[in-house]
Design goal:
Blueprint lengths: L6 H10 L5 H22 L9 E5 L5 E3 H13 L6 E6 L6 E2 L9 E9 L10 E9 L21 E7 L3 E6 L4 E7 L4 E6 L10 E3 L10 H11 L11 E2 L5 H11 L2 E4 L14 H14 L3 E3 L19 E4 L1 H17 L1
Parallel strand pairs: 3-5, 11-12, 11-13
Antiparallel strand pairs: 1-2, 3-4, 5-6, 6-7, 7-8, 8-9, 9-10, 13-15, 14-15
Helix pairs in contact: 1-2, 2-3, 4-7
This protein binds 6-O-phosphono-alpha-D-fructofuranose.
The site of 6-O-phosphono-alpha-D-fructofuranose has 9 residues, from helix 5.
Catalytic activity: beta-D-fructose 1,6-bisphosphate + H2O = beta-D-fructose 6-phosphate + phosphate
Subcellular location: Cytoplasm
Keywords: Carbohydrate metabolism, Cytoplasm, Hydrolase, Magnesium, Metal-binding
Length: about 350
C-alpha cells in the first residue's frame, strides 16, 4: 500500500476544506484515541480480568459488563479537559455529564454507546463503540437531557469503532463515510476505505428471527416474502445473518450491502423497539446515508425524527437503499389501508 493517509491528516484536510472546525477535529481525535484504549482492553479478553458482569445495572435495566463501565469511563475521562465539549451522554448513564467546571467548555455534545453488543464480549464476538456529535445549543450547559434532543439530521459527525479481527473506525463528518484501520505497531488509524458506497440492492437480511411471533402483521408479511425466495413475490433467494452486535451487523452492510432490522415487537409494547435513537440509530443512520444507503423506523426517515427522550427506543430498518424502501412500504401500505 502506498503511504496511507492517517486519521490525523484526513481530519486536517477536512478542516482545511471547511467541513469541520478545529474543535470538532480535536473531539474526533480524542474519541479515536479512546477507541484505541477500549480496543486494547477488549483485546486482552480473559487475561485482562475485565470479562463478566460489573454487578451493576444501567438506565436501560440491563446488567452492565465490566467492560461497559470501563469503556464509559475511558470516553468520559478523555473528553474532560480538551475544551472541545460541553457535555457527554451515554447509554450507561441516566443523565448527561457536563465537562467539570475546572476545565474550559466547548460547543459540542458527545453521545455514545461505549460498548455496543457487550453481551458478546464473554464469547469473543466482535463488539464496538458508537458515537454521535451534536452542536450544543447557545447559552446552555449541555447538562440537561433536553439540550441533546435534536433530530439526527443535525449531527455534525458520527462513527463507530469495531473491535474484531482488526479494529476499524468508520467515520462521517457529513462528507461521505470512510473507514480507518488501526495499525497496532504505530498505534494510529490509517485510511483504508474512502467514500464507502453501500450497494443499492441486496439479497441478505439481518434480523433476530426468534422474535417473529411478536412482530406486527406487515413485518411478518415482509419476512415471509423474503423467506419464500425465488418462487415467492420477491423472485429471488435471500440469505440471513444475525451477529446480535449492531456494530458488526452494520459493518458487514457497510462493506457488502444488506438490510438490518430490529422492528417493534409486542414482547414489551411500551418500548418502540430495542435500539436507542440518540446513540445507536441516529449515528448509524448518518453513516449509512452518507454511504448511499437508507434508514427508517419502518415508516419515517430516522434522521428526521424529533427525539422526545434521551434514551428513547426506535424500530430500525437500515442498509441498502432499495431494500429499505421495499421493507418500509409494507408498513406504509398497511397504514393506508387501516
Ligand atoms: P437481540 C446488543 O445488545 C444490541 O443492543 C445490538 O447491538 C444488537 O443488534 C441487538 O441488541 C441484539 O438484540 O435481541 O438479538 O439480543
Amino acid at each position: 500500500m502506498s503511504n496511507p493517509v492517517s486519521l490525523t491528516r484526513f481530519l486536517i484536510e477536512q478542516q482545511h476544506a471547511g467541513h469541520i472546525s478545529a474543535d470538532l477535529r480535536l473531539l474526533i481525535e480524542v474519541v479515536a484515541r479512546s477507541c484505541k484504549r477500549i480496543s486494547i482492553a477488549v483485546g486482552k479478553g480473559a487475561l485482562g480480568g475485565v470479562l463478566g458482569d460489573a454487578g451493576t445495572g444501567n438506565v436501560q435495566g440491563e446488567a452492565q459488563k465490566k467492560l461497559d463501565v470501563i469503556s464509559n469511563e475511558i470516553l468520559l475521562e478523555a473528553n474532560e479537559w480538551g475544551g472541545h465539549l460541553a457535555a457527554c451522554a451515554s447509554e450507561e448513564m441516566d443523565h448527561p455529564v457536563p465537562v467539570p467546571n475546572a476545565y474550559p467548555k466547548g460547543n459540542y455534545l458527545l453521545l455514545f454507546d461505549p460498548l455496543d453488543g457487550s453481551s458478546n464480549i464473554d464469547v469473543n464476538v466482535s463488539v464496538g463503540t458508537i458515537f454521535s456529535v451534536l452542536r450544543c445549543p447557545d447559552g446552555v450547559s449541555g447538562a440537561d437531557d433536553a439540550h441533546f434532543l435534536q433530530c439526527g439530521a443535525t449531527q455534525v459527525a458520527a462513527g463507530y469503532a469495531i473491535y474484531g479481527p482488526s479494529t476499524e473506525l468508520v467515520l462521517t463528518v457529513g462528507n461521505g463515510s470512510h473507514a480507518f484501520t488501526m495499525d497496532r505497531e504505530i498505534g494510529g488509524f490509517l485510511l483504508t476505505r474512502k467514500d464507502i458506497q453501500v450497494p443499492r440492492a441486496t439479497a441478505e437480511f439481518a434480523i433476530n428471527m426468534s422474535n417473529q411471533r411478536h412482530w406486527d402483521t406487515p413485518m411478518q408479511r415482509y419476512i415471509d416474502e423474503l423467506l419464500a425466495g425465488k418462487d415467492g413475490p420477491r423472485g429471488k433467494n435471500f440469505n440471513m445473518r444475525w451477529i446480535a452486535s449492531m456494530v458488526a451487523d452494520v459493518h458487514r452492510i457497510m462493506n457488502r450491502g444488506g438490510i438490518f432490522i430490529y422492528p417493534w415487537d409486542r414482547k414489551d409494547p411500551s418500548k418502540a423497539g430495542k435500539l436507542r435513537l440518540m446513540y445507536e440509530a441516529n449515528p448509524m443512520a448518518m453513516l449509512i446515508e452518507q454511504a448511499g444507503g437508507a434508514a427508517t423506523d419502518g415508516r419515517r426517515r430516522i434522521l428526521d425524527i424529533q427525539p422526545e427522550a434521551l434514551h428513547q427506543r426506535i424500530p430500525v430498518f437500515l442498509g441498502s437503499a432499495e431494500e429499505v424502501e421495499v421493507a418500509t412500504a409494507y408498513h406504509l401500505e398497511a397504514d393506508r389501508k387501516a
